[in-house]
TrEMBL record, chain A:
Transmembrane segments: none annotated. Keywords: ATP-binding, Nucleotide-binding, Transport. Residues 2-232 form the ABC transporter domain. This is ABC transporter ATP-binding protein. The keyword Cytoplasm does not apply. GO terms for molecular function: ATP binding. It comes from the Bacteria. Pfam families: ABC_tran (PF00005), DrrA1-3_C (PF13732).
Automatic annotation (TrEMBL), chain B:
This is ABC transporter permease. It is a multi-pass membrane protein. Its main location: membrane. It is found in: Membrane. InterPro entries: ABC-2_transporter, ABC2_TM. Residues 18-379 form the ABC-2 type transporter transmembrane domain. Keywords: Membrane, Transmembrane, Transmembrane helix. It comes from Sporolactobacillus mangiferae. The chain crosses the membrane at residues 15-34, 189-213, 233-258, 270-289, 360-381.
Amino acid sequence: MIHVKNLVKRYGELVALDHLSLDVREGEIFGLLGPNGSGKSTAINCILSLLSFDKGEVEIFGKTMAPDAYDLKRKIGVVMQNVAVFEELTVYENIDYFCGLYIRNREERRHLVEEAIHFVELDDFRKFYPKKLSGGLLRRLNIACGIAHKPKLIFLDEPTVAVDPQSRNKILEGIERLNEQGVTIVYTSHYMEEVEQICSRIVIMDKGRVIASGTKEELKAMITLGEKITVEVFSINEEQLSQLRTLPGIVSVEHIDRQLYIKSGKGSNNLEIVLDFLKKRQIGFGRIYSELPTLNDVFLEITGKQLRD
Amino acid sequence: MPVFNLCLKIFRRNWLAVFIYVAIFVAISVTIAITSVHDQSSGNGFTQQKAKIAFISEEKTPLTEGFRQELAKHADFVSIPDSKEQLQDALFFRQVTYVLRIPKGFTKNILDGGTMQIEKTIVPESVENAYIDIDVQQYWNLARLYVRHDPGLTQEQLTERLRQNLDGDTPVRMNVHEHAKTKDSFSMYYFNFLSYALSAILIMGISTVMIVFNKQDLRRRIFCSPSSPLKVNLQIILADLLFAAVALVALVGFCFLLDAKSFTTPNMPYFLVNAVAFTACITSLSFLVGNLLNNLSAMSGVCNILTLGPSFISGVFVPQEFLNDTVLKIASFTPTYWYVQANTKIAKLTDFDWQNLRPVFTSTLILLTFTAAFAALSLVVGKRKRLME
């Protein structure tokens, strides 16, 4: 559905997109994950022809995307990172206005606007002005404005920034429902949990480049980390820590504030090995957590820095 | 036309800010109208003023009686006792402005060809006394003339001759051209003051719309849609022009309600053409302001500076003839100055030939030059702003 090849965008010396290539398939929720400044929004703006680019090609629905590709734009919905609504219009009027840019028929539009309001659960706020809405409601209005005309492809650029957990869940549920209705979604975020939760395929970006892509399982399979074990220990000395580091399958051990942070490689009984060691040395321990690696770990292992750096 | 309709909605949402200016404008206009009508009614036609005079004659002859009757045409006689003190008091308290005394033997002196003078005491700088002086000079010089050329005349004959001679009345007709009625008229003040109200309304309205549509996020969002930037911009311009036209028609409409008579003068079409040129200029300026400003909170302050400033220095509130040359020189860099100047010239027009109309058209042409300059600047600023984003 979207084919991007060798996209290059420069701002003077700064290379915002460095030969970015990606493919989005029909019917998927495609996640674009990366820290702030990694080039996600620039990529979206270039794909949508809102920004000119220095090199590369962008095809949507099999046709070259251009500023005047109005037939393509008609099928695309866009939810910007910053809320883009008119302060002078009510919730209903805002959705009606943006829908009106795509749909001329008034009756059809009325129906679509109602549907969008219902979809984002803003039924009780239709006569409210944006100033009176909370951050979460405003984000939902922003989404409604982008999806009211029932596009086949929707770009959602960090739609949950500065949103409370309840509103965030509603937004994510909504996105999944849209996808179930057959809409292809391109979702950018720096929240790995969200991307992990809803995206079927993910591209991780850094410094304008794709550093990894695949399903979340494929991405996690790329790294050596198998498990993260956290153990509350009451007393452990340096010698015991050194011995722990030499155990088979253990990648690293850190002791901070009576907590042992152990990273192990891929294997089935890493936790058992650690617990055996502690029991044999009669090291008292309390709570134990075991976690599988996250996309942050993937990012960390590939780039050497945290996703939220 | 969703963008066009949205612009109209934004205008409607900001009606209160605009309405305040309209209300102030109408209130002041009505005040001017009332004052202007009063002034005009007292200024039509010519009536000779009569001086209040104390007429004291130390002799009573047919000639002095004839003089008294002649004087009565241009003077109101006030009876004051013939005492120095009382006469001085009467002058001091303006009971009379002229004390005229015919000395004893005056008639004989005149008939003998003498040069004896009538005594007069007057209130200084009293304009109406001039008429009395003229009458005195005229009557007695004429009497001397008759006596010199026809020495055999009796006093009665001489008095009769003088009466017949001076009986001719010269009606005074104010030979002012009908068209010059607009000079210092309500319509001139109204159209001058209209520049302030119109500037405020247009800058508030048009710039607000421009600022809203110039928000980067909204513009990008709109350009994600299948609406071409050209169509979007044309719709915004169309809505702004409609707003400007409605504002002009409404303000001119008020003028019609307050002074419909002025619309029958041949000067009115020129006032209207000048107002249209000024509207075009301020519309263009509003586009520029809208492109320069980024947020609506600065709007009110900028609007006040751009409307009140030029109005004060260009003669909207205080006529240009009362402003000094330096102020006017500075004002000439504003369109308001040329608009007011054209209005003042239009108001004085009686003959509509090329020579008289040329300065009016020059001012209008300068207004149109301002329009083009503001529009060009607006395009450059707008493009530069978008490139910087």
